[in-house]
Amino acid sequence: MKFWMKLDLSIILMIAMILSCSRFIVVRQNFKYSIENSVEQNTNQHRLERYSLESNVINDIQLGEEVTNEKIVQSIQMLCSYMESDSGKVAVFGKEKEMIFCNFDKIEKVRVEELFYEEIDNYCIRKIGNEQYMLFFSHWSINNEEIYMLHFYDVSVIYKMREKQLKEIMYTDIIILVIASIFISFFSKFLTKPIEELNETSKKISSGKFNERTRIKTNDEIGELAESFNKMAAEIEYKINFLKQSNQAKDDFMTGFSHEIKTPMTAIIGYSDLLRLKKCDEEITTKALNYIYSEAKRLEELSYKLLSLMELTEDRIDFQCVKIKEFVEKVTKKMDLQEVRLKLDLQNAVVEIDENLLEVVIRNLVQNAKKAEPKDKCITIVGELWENHKYRISVIDCGRGIPKEHLGRVMEDFYMVDKSRSKQNGGTGIGLSLCRKILEFHNSEIKIESEENVGTKVYFELEVVE
Description:
Elements: H1 3-62, H2 69-82, E1 89-93, E2 99-102, H3 112-115, E3 122-128, E4 131-142, E5 145-154, H4 156-206, H5 221-277, H6 282-311, E6 320-323, H7 324-333, E7 341-346, E8 350-353, H8 355-371, E9 378-386, E10 390-397, H9 404-407, H10 419-424, H11 431-441, E11 447-451, E12 455-463
Parallel strand pairs: 7-9
Antiparallel strand pairs: 1-2, 1-5, 3-4, 4-5, 6-8, 9-10, 10-12, 11-12
């Protein structure tokens, strides 16, 4: 059963219970008040008739007349003639509880003998035939004479009125519930529509449509739920896309790694096999040995950089406060660039770095600048204080530059702009990728500005401590 149906039924049942209870209480109170009014009215009537009969009997006694059953009957008949026709019926019993007078035609249906043992001067309600009657019983003694008097008052109209009210209430409640159920069904579906939308969206997301979102805009708990759901879906989509990209990057890395290993190994195996199986002249031997040596060196460099990538974790980083000018000068002094010269333009500042890792970054950037074959045979390293307490280190060359279509991919693993030239220079395609990951641990990133046949500027920023 759908939620809106449950909500609909719950509200209708609640309304039905409230209506039934409230109307039952009202009818019950009305019936109670009617009975109480009838009791008060009939009690007065009973007492009046009783006192009238008792007065007549006392007058007869005072006149010296004998009190007989005939006298009592005459007094009652005279009294009944004065009373209204619907004032009630009466029965009178003598000392031996024999019936002296009765104008109630259904007396045989009343177990009168039980009333003689009931509490005197009280009333009870009995169903006689199809009618309801209120019975008043009393007695008195005059000159050792016992007289019992029983009045019958028809109160059927009160009970019929109650039954009529109950039927009218039942029909009215049915009509109200039918109309209410139509409106409640409409509003229940309207109110639960956002929940159905959430359900449908969750089904689409579970089927793989991770870009699906709800369009619920309400200022209530459902609106907050929808907003939280959208945030959750966005986070799931991001995580899944991230995992896909990670898996793709791993696949690309393994493909590139396999290719980078296979190419030099093919050259090494081929030339070594040539030298092993055939006696070659000195020129061919030298050429073969040079190929074997250069490819082996490239494998060595590749292995070192791969080890650096695998070992690069945050746990291994040891940050220290360093004077960056002295650090860069110390690193560049150890570098042998042969025919290319370095030009340093550094300002003083203290930064927090891992010296070993940042040395890898500077070496890689300078080596890449050298491989770009700068026209002026000069590589410039600029260190300057920047805004927001940043220290920018830039490596600038006037070399070949990087074509615009390659700028977005140069930091991918094993990506090389000119593979043939890079291999001749001993390139592996993971230098910039390694630099990017090292700088991420320093809360920095590599930025590249380059123009083909003009030159390249690679720079990054560090947080200044002092």
